[in-house]
Structures are given as structure tokens and as C-alpha cells.
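Why does residue order matter? Because the sequence determines the fold. Keep that principle in mind as you read this record.
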Amino acid sequence: MLSHGKGCELFDTEGRRYLDMAAGVAVCAVGHGHPRHAAAIGEQAARLGHVSNYFYNDVNIRLAVELCRRTGFSRAFFCNSGAEANEAMLKMARRHFHAEGQVERFQVLAFDNSFHGRTMGALALTGQAKYQQGFGPGVGGITHLPYNDLAAVEAAMNPSVAAIFVEPVQGEGGAIPARVEFLQGLRRLCDQHGALLMVDEIQTGIGRTGAFLAYEHAGIRPDAVALAKGLGGGFPIGSVLCGEKLAGALPPGTHGSTFGGNPLACAAALSVLEILDDERLIDHARRMGAHLGDRLRQAAEAHPTLFEGERGLGLLRGLVLRPGADARAALARVREQGVLLTAAGERTLRFTPPLVVTEAQLDEAVQRTVAALREA
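Structure:
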């Protein structure tokens, strides 16, 4: 049972130390107990906690301006989580074409092995049947295609396609990056067919891959992007950013969120962005990501009977176990060695440490992970 943390270290109620290579599934971007983050939340809680989105608040506007400044978008919608952000993007895509008089244009293309959340709309976008079992008929009009297969997408494009939803890295699917030419090809196909490109940056955004948003590595610009996880640094917040093309897609009364734009959450997010800048954490994530990739690759090459390989981008990395391995059992063994990881896909150990992680901490985490599995 965990009780407190500092930076990339967590401690349980018995005082045992753990290296946190999970960060709450890529959430705690600036680590645990960052003094500036904690102070921002405390100061805002004493000033104004919640007013609902019936009214503007100064922190909400400041965050919207800051996110738009960094990304080149002009509009921001705030909610509470990544699933809600993807729900909003799905509704935005469909209602945009309805408002344009193209009511037949509601089909959405998504990808096998993807993960977009656990609400019914986000679940329908998710390309993994195991998450959908037992919930009955899902939201219709969504087709799943092979990831990184541009020819399959081109063959599926038709006048009824409203949007393509894609993750720049399939985090839950096993830390699988999209190829640069795949993302560029999606942008081109959307332009050719008049469809929207919607990018899910919930796990990859806020500097995790060594760029503020992961699609920047491909040099593309989507029509809308979903953010969450690292944005609040541990405080729940989600957001959708878009340009003027989609500014009227969800007019007042068509969508909302009681806690969306909550000043407390927005203060937490603003502090995360300030810390990213002042501590140069995006550049740091790029360097640490390269270092982690090297260490995981070396571990896989040195222990081919344990590991199949390494993959990922920045500080979203996966160490792939050999076929037949049980990732959940491996997690328990690694935890006994004082390292916290998560499983992704069928047999991938996922590393998503706080962006403040050091080389020494990464080296220790990889060494302990390998040691735990060798002993087993």
C-alpha cells in the first residue's frame, strides 16, 4: 500500500522504496510531490475551486491560451479524462458534418490494437475486443483497420468517412509507434477525401516522446487533438484542441462537462506547463528516452531467452517478453525487486516514468527488472 512519493520514488506504508517507472500510467509528468505543482494546487484551492463551465474563470482562460499558443490551435474544450476527450472528438467529428448538411458522413476509421478509453464511445473506437466483451452492442459506424497499413486505410476511404482516429504510439497496445510515413499518409488521405484527422495524444502528449505532442515528429497537423494524463500532472483534466474549422461543431447545449475547466484542475495543468519550460523537461525526456531505449535494447540482446526486443518513443517504451510469457506475473516479480511497471498488449512491460527521471534511476530500474526475471 503506497503512502507517499518524491520525484520518481514511491514509498509504501512500511517504508519500502520503489522506483516508479509507471507514473500513474504516464500521468505524473513532473514526478511526485513537486513543490511548485503542490503549491499551485494549494493556492488555487484557497482562492477558487469550482464554478462550473456556465461561467468563465481566469485560470481556465489562461490555460486555454497557453495550450493554443503551444500548438497553433485556436479553441480548447476542457473535460476530466482522456476517455471524455475522445468522446468529445467523436461527437465533434460527426456533428461537424451534420451541420454542414452531410448527414450521411458519420463513419469513423480507427485501428486494430488501439485504446481510446472505457466509455461506450471511446470503447467503440478501441481496437481490442477484450475491452468490449460483456457490454453489449457498441456505438456503430466505426471500422478498425491494421495499424501502420496505409494501403488498408486508402482502400477504406469513401464519402461516408467523417474522420480517422489514431494514436501516434499505441501505448496500451504495447508501445508501438506509428511510422512517420503512415501519419503523413493519413493526413494526405484526409485532405484528399475531405475527412478529419483526429489524434489521440492522451498518453503521448505533454512532452512524453521528446516533443510537446508526438505528431510533431511526423511534421503533420491534425484537425483536433485529445489531451489528458500528463496535462494535470496527477490532477484529473482532459482537453480537446481544435482550429476554427471545428469551432462551431459543438455549439452550446450539444456537449458539456460539469467539472470541465475546473479552476483547480487548470491551475495544476498550468503549473505542469511552467515546470516543463523552466526545467527543460521536453528536451530531457528526449535524452532520457534515448537512454532508456538503449538500455532496454541492450537488455534484450543480452537475454534473448527472456526478451524479444524493445520498442517505443521517448519515455514511452516497451520491453517485449518472449512468446508464451505472462506479463502480469512478470510485473509481480519486478515489483518485488522495487520497480513499478505496467503491462501493455499481451506481453510487453511498459516504461512510462515521470519526465524528471535520471539516467541513474533508469539504469537501476532496468537492472532490477532484468534481475527479477532472470531469478524467476
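The chain has a mean pLDDT of 96.
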